[in-house]
Write a structure and sequence with these properties.
Glutaredoxin; four-stranded mixed beta sheet; alpha+beta
């Protein structure tokens, strides 16, 4: 009997700095293990409200300050450029999320590259990902039809909302968040090594 292809549900927000700081390590890990990734963009502010989290702007000043320190440290470790105070953040994440949903359904391009380029646009390039022209450019750059920015908006909205509901039921409370098909959960880009370990099936790797 053939072994089952590993699968990862990937919950994230196109506004999340820590999702950006993950780079494309998830895609590298998935390729290493032959795993399929299902990309599930969601409304992170609504997720916080539903799961007891607090938006960054409403956190205690000490928490806000440490968040910036941690972002800077992680950027230094990964070598990714990072603007701690991007020009267009927070912004409306829906248009970019709908485009990712449409791209996943349509195929034909590099979805991981699209997700990372969208996050890089926010956190390193000061681009406004709520603008149609930016979304179209990001789609095209990742090998997708830029017209996806204008098609399937109703479906995109439905799946975007559905992703939030699925996330809450699955125990997701932040981003990035990874869930394997056997139910193991991993929160944060700094847990990707643990995800890799788990997919290797090593002793003590259960989530």
């Amino acid at each position: 009997m053939a072994s089952q292809t590993p699968a990862i549900d990937y919950y994230f927000s196109t506004l999340s700095p820590f999702t950006y700081l993950a780079g494309q390590r998830l895609e590298e890990i998935a390729a290493k293990h032959g795993a399929e990734v299902t990309y599930k963009p969601l409304d992170i502010m609504s997720l916080f409200a539903r799961t007891g989290g607090t938006p960054p702007k409403d956190r205690h000043p000490s928490r806000q300050a440490y968040r910036l320190v941690e972002m800077e440290r992680q950027a230094a470790r990964t070598g990714l450029p990072l603007n701690l105070k991007p020009a267009h953040w927070p912004t409306n994440a829906a248009p970019s999320s709908y485009a990712i949903i449409a791209a996943q359904k349509a195929g034909g391009g590099d979805l991981g590259a699209l997700v990372h380029a969208t996050l890089r646009a926010v956190w390193a390039e000061d681009r406004e990902i709520a603008e149609d022209s930016v979304v179209r450019s990001l789609l095209e750059g990742a090998g997708f039809d830029p017209g996806l920015a204008d098609s399937g908006l109703l479906t995109g909205a439905e799946i975007y909302a559905q992703n939030l509901e699925e996330a809450v039921k699955a125990g997701v409370f932040g981003a990035p968040f990874y869930i394997t098909q056997d139910g193991a959960t991993f929160w944060g880009q700094d847990r990707l090594d643990d995800l890799d370990w788990h997919l290797s099936g090593r002793p003590g790797a259960a989530g």
